[in-house]
Amino acid sequence: MLVSLEWLKEYVQIQDLTPAQLAEKITRSGIEVDAVIDRANGMEKVVVGHVVSKEKHPEADKLNICQVDVGEESLQQIICGAPNVDAGQKVIVARPGAHLPGGIKIKKAKLRGHESNGMICSLQELGIEGKLVPKAYAEGIYVLPADTEVGSDALALLGLRDTVLELGLTPNRSDALSMLGVAYEVGAILSAEVTYPTATYTTSSEKAQDVLQLRVEDTTANPMYVAKVVKNVKIAESPRWLQNRLMAAGIRPHNNVVDVTNYILMEYGQPLHAFDYDSLATGEIVVRKAAEGEKITTLDDQERTLKATDLVITNGKEPVAIAGVMGGANSEVTESTTTVVIESAYFDGLTVRQTSRHLGLRSDSSARFEKGVDPNRVLAAADRAAALLAELAGGEVLEGMCIVDELDKAPARVVVSPDFINERLGMKISLEEMLSILERLKFDVEAANGLLIIDAPTRRQDIKIEEDIVEEIARLYGYDEIPMTLPEGANQAGSLTAYQATRRVVRNFMEGAGLYQAVTYSLTSEALSQRFALKAESVTRLLMPMSEERSTLRQSLIPHLIEAAAYNVARQADGVALYEIGSVFLGQSAEGQPYEEEHVAAVLTGKWLDHAWQGEKKAVDFFVLKGIVEGVVGKLGLTERISFVKAEVDGLHPGRTASILLDGTQVGIIGGLHPAEQKAWGVKDTYVMEMNLVALLQAVTEEAPLSYTAVPRFPAMSRDIALIMNRATPAGEVLAVIEKAGVKLLKDVHVFDVYEGDKMEAGKKSVAFSLTYFDPERTLTDEEVVAAHTKVLKAIATIEGTEVR
């Protein structure tokens, strides 16, 4: 909400406070002021000029040489490139020495050999956003009324010697979505009275009900509808003061009729709509629910398809507006309009919100109806609009109105005791101070039998319960005045649960291994929701998703991690290593909600090592990521219980994919992206991993005992074995056979070479193992090592298709 202080002063006296001081007081009372905007922005030497003559620049087709009267003895020559500049216009002139927004300093200059003493300005050049400039002047300079005084201060004329407060409102404070609402708030803060605008006008003898019939079919969704008729209006530009106030409030001026409805919207917080009476054609307004699939073209020239839950305003035959959201193009006010129907209504906030959401169409009107408007301002706003149309458009207001009124306008009553308030605040505020605060807020209050009986004004839709009164008294009394106290009672130092502490071990290891933590969306598209899932179950869709890309709860962390990696690769990152610890959502629990399970996942792509000094470079591969997984399970003390088994997973490379097993049960997957998948994501060799973190951490039943290995005092002896084996036989299977051979002296065995070249028999491969024999108590003899090694070789001989080279 943008609040012009010059406009605000029309309703409440803000004393001698500076804008910054007033903003501080408003913020301390509970409504945050996000910005204090000086509309003049330090500008000076900007005056009104009169273009006496205009000639084409001899050296530039798009430039004009203008002789401009700026209130001095002689005319000033100014070169102007605006397409709409012309002789006889009153314009805005920045004199030499003026400073304009954007760091522009105006100087005397020569343009193509001709002197220019200033600049004829557009509104944009004065710092007004292009979207707020009237369309007639959007592409050129701004032309002032013919009776504007030459040499006068253009900034004052345009309302730019003003300060605007930008309020950051919470949804419950819909009352402050209007100038009057802000005036009541400021009045309560400063103990000042609020002046209410008047609405006086003369009506004709003709009655509104003689020319317009009104029927509301759904009074639950539309309990109050007021229609006033104004004849003989003359469509024109609004007066300067009205345009200035609308632009200060962030609204573009259109014409006097539309501008009046927008002015009332900002002043009262009551949305209005103006219909061209002749375009209605039937002389009838019927408010009803839309037919399923019914269509309407709205004021933004977009055709909208309606649902049966939408409320529409019709002429008895076809929709002419979507209730509370936007009017229809078939009934808008145009330059030829002579008779206007003013609509002021109370629409159910839930109905408006549902319509606005499914149409993807939000407006200033829908925002106010959704949060709640003051039921006692519906009629007052219509009267105020009628008065302004009579004054500014020369309209003739017909007597009476068409009205349907089944709206409850009674104020909310709250009964609360002063003791309840003081107990909640932890302090002692006197009854007199409480009464004073409530009266400043314009609440009707009575103290009786130790209770406060309060009738909140209907503009304050957020006042419903006792705690609301406590908040009102606290914020006006001053949050700074509430004493600081320490909590009393027994307390206990906080600590991490065993699960949290172990999860932190995993996180620390992943980061220590060189991976960066990522946090991705829990919502994804239905197509990606089960992609790479460890166990695919029924998906959970949102009832009202923001978009199809965020419509379904994920069942795997991998897709969004790949997306993050692809995003970085597209921005020239030569290596990406990310991990995420987050939840996936599987099936449904007994309560009907999806079962939430925490997983850990990682993605690696590009370079893994790049040591320029040592000349060492290494790209990521399957074994880099496998080593990280082994490091994680090693930290958790689960190395002996984890195994890797070749697997096939849709989207992963068939020869570089494995299931991760915990005690024989799958808890994860690891593998490289399939080439087709890499092409689709726009990445090269990329490897991913995901594990069920809950299963892993539940397997860690107790803290692993501290263990160490003494520095060896005796030498170890090693033997290498090269085996010819079936290409389909995993090296890990042979490794397990060697380890299970039961040779006590064998302390370590690992693969150090694999060969599958042309010199090997088809279907075969050569795998070389290194075995280390060691006794911590003595030096081994050759005979002991030979005996142990022979036992290993006998165990290997039992493996089908395997022989020693």
Automatic annotation (TrEMBL):
The protein's location, in the record's own words, is:
Cytoplasm
Tell me the cofactors it needs: Mg(2+)
Q: Which PROSITE patterns does its entry note?
A: B5, FDX_ACB, TRBD
Q: Where is the B5 domain?
A: 409-484
**What does the record give as the reaction this protein catalyses?**
tRNA(Phe) + L-phenylalanine + ATP = L-phenylalanyl-tRNA(Phe) + AMP + diphosphate + H(+)
Q: Which SUPFAM superfamilies match?
A: Anticodon-binding domain of PheRS, Class II aaRS and biotin synthetases, Nucleic acid-binding proteins, PheT/TilS domain, Putative DNA-binding domain
Q: Quote the record's binding site residues for Mg(2+).
A: D462, D468, E471, E472
Keywords for the protein's UniProt record, in alphabetical order = Aminoacyl-tRNA synthetase, ATP-binding, Cytoplasm, Ligase, Magnesium, Metal-binding, Nucleotide-binding, Protein biosynthesis, RNA-binding, tRNA-binding
The UniProt record lists the EC number as: 6.1.1.20
- Residues forming the TRNA-binding domain are 40-155
Bound how, and how many: what does the cofactor note say? Answer: Binds 2 magnesium ions per tetramer.
Please indicate if the UniProt record lists Transmembrane as a keyword.
no
* Pfam families named in the record: B3_4, B5, FDX-ACB, tRNA_bind, tRNA_synthFbeta
InterPro entries (UniProt xref): aa-tRNA-synth_II/BPL/LPL, B3/B4_tRNA-bd, DNA-bd_dom_put_sf, Fdx_antiC-bd, Fdx_antiC-bd_sf, NA-bd_OB-fold, Phe-tRNA-ligase_IIc_bsu, Phe-tRNA-ligase_IIc_bsu_bact
FDX-ACB domain ranges (all copies):
712-805
Q: Name one GO molecular function term.
A: ligase activity
Gene3D superfamilies (alphabetical): 3.30.56.10, Bira Bifunctional Protein, Domain 2, Ferrodoxin-fold anticodon-binding domain, Nucleic acid-binding proteins, Phenylalanyl-trna Synthetase, Chain B, domain 3
Q: Describe the subunit structure.
A: Tetramer of two alpha and two beta subunits.
Sorted alphabetically, which HAMAP family does this protein's record hold? Phe_tRNA_synth_beta1
Q: Which family does it belong to?
A: Belongs to the phenylalanyl-tRNA synthetase beta subunit family. Type 1 subfamily.
List the protein's name.
Phenylalanine--tRNA ligase beta subunit
Gene encoding the protein: pheT_2
